[in-house]
Amino acid sequence: MMLLLSCTQPSEIRFLMRGDELGISKDVNMAIIKAYQEGIVSSESILPGSTHFLEVVDLYKENQGISAGIHTTLTNTASRPILPVEEGASLVNEDGFLFETRAEFEANNPRPEEIKKESRAQIAKVRATGLRICYQDFTETPFPRIGMLWAGVRGKEGIDGLAQHDLIMSGQGSLGLKPNHEPAGLSDGFTEESLGIAKAKIREIRNINPDAVIIADMLFYEYPDEWLPENHPWWLRKGGERQQFWPGTHRMDWNNPEYRRNVIQQTISLKKCGADGVFYDNIRDEPEPWISFLSELRTAIGEDFLIFANAGYDVGSYDFAAPYLNGMMYESGWSHNQT
Q1: Can you tell me the distance from the alpha carbon of 246 to that of 164, in angstroms, rounded to the nearest whole number?
Q2: CA 96, CA 89: separation in Å to the nearest integer?
Q3: Contact of 13 with 47, CB cutoff 8 Å
Q4: Which residues of the chain have pLDDT under 50?
Q5: How far apart are CA 259 and CA 257, in angstroms?
Q6: In whole angstroms, what is the distance from residue 125 CA to residue 106 CA?
Q7: Cα 184–Cα 214–Cα 286 angle in degrees, nearest 5
Q8: Which pLDDT does position 155 carry in this prediction?
Q9: What is the pLDDT of residues 152-182, one digit of tens each?
Q10: What's the half-sphere exposure (Cβ side, CA atoms, 13 Å) at 36?
Q11: Is residue 51 a contact partner of residue 28, using CB atoms and an 8 Å limit?
């Protein structure tokens, strides 16, 4: 389960409701804005190709508290494509409109490069309005709107299996990344050769699925015992003893600023391979030292790089992390009953 965080941060959030396809008709526009004004919905997504696009932009500007999203779409006869017909001929019907159904869309053999250009054109059109965009939504992408964590579709291995998802969380090794020092815990990045391999794999995934969001996981709460010498100062110690996490692993000292800087350098190196973001495994329900780390990280990595984290079994209030994270996963089945 992934908990997506809103751009606005009320002191307590129990339930989030989102409006969809703002711009598809005047009636829908009026209904969604009324729902926002009455406190029912907190975010709405705009259709870039809608004939009511300019009206919707004005509605957003008149209602400043809305969390705005971009609703990219490849099938919807109420929307025209943003690209000129000659640049996206495989995406439109004989009248120059998007196809009504996914079956019609796929039967026309849409070209991946045109899908990518049209999606980017839709995003660029909305961004050009100056609206503050908090998320992106999709309609009828060529692949299931599902995410994968560490493993792809059953029975499909390799790049093709990964590309069947919209959100891909992959291990560093699966992307071909290798640490630039031995033992691995002393690494502050990845070898140039392995970064090149990862770039090629990511390009291959996006050639199949242009909408794929690709993030790589990073161990940082605990390290395998062989990653650092036993006497290294980055291990967390209590009473002089290292603190075991899983068998064969021990926890890291997050109050050590040198260790935090090392993780940030690893993340900067990860960004170079073309990944969209990082998945940290794990954080815990304790504002410090996490606020210090996450604020330093966001400053170093920029706003365009996604940061996800695993809360594991440690259910709690993570409002302190919301300004820095793009999403969070609650891992354990028993903990879901408490959220």
Answers
A1: 32
A2: 8
A3: no
A4: 1-11, 13, 142-144, 333-339
A5: 5
A6: 25
A7: 65
A8: 57
A9: 655 566 787 777 777 888 889 889 999 999 9
A10: 23
A11: no
pLDDT tens digits, residue range 288-318?
888 899 999 999 999 889 999 888 766 667 7
What counts of helices (H) and strands (E) characterise the chain? Answer: 9, 15
Pairing of strands 18-22, 213-219: unpaired
Which backbone phi and psi does 164 adopt, to 5 degrees? -80, 10
Give the per-residue pLDDT at 226: 97
pTM beyond 0.90: the answer is: no
- What the block records as the tokens of 163 is 């590309």
Q: What is the pLDDT of residue 5?
A: 41
Tokens (6 digits) for 325: 């994270």
Concatenated DSSP letters for 162-210? HTT-SEEEE-TGGGT--BSSSSGGG-SSB-HHHHHHHHHHHHHHHHH-T
- Going by C-alpha positions, the residue among 274, 21, 25 that lies closest to residue 138 is 21
d(CA 59, CA 33): 8
CA–CA dist 300, 324 (Å, integer): 12
Output DSSP code: residue 258: H
Class of residue 238 by CB neighbours under 10 A (exposed 0-12, middle 13-18, buried 19+): exposed
Among 42, 35, 116, 41, which Cα is nearest to 74's? 116
What does the chain come to in residues? 339
Query: Do the Cβ atoms of 213 and 277 come closer than 8 Å?
Result: yes
User: By the 8 A CB rule, do 294 and 307 touch?
Assistant: yes
pLDDT of the residue at 314:
62
The three-class DSSP label of residue 110 is: coil
- Residue 118: φ, ψ to 5°: -65, -45
Helix or strand or coil: residue 248? coil
Residues 237 and 259 sit within 8 Å (Cβ to Cβ): no
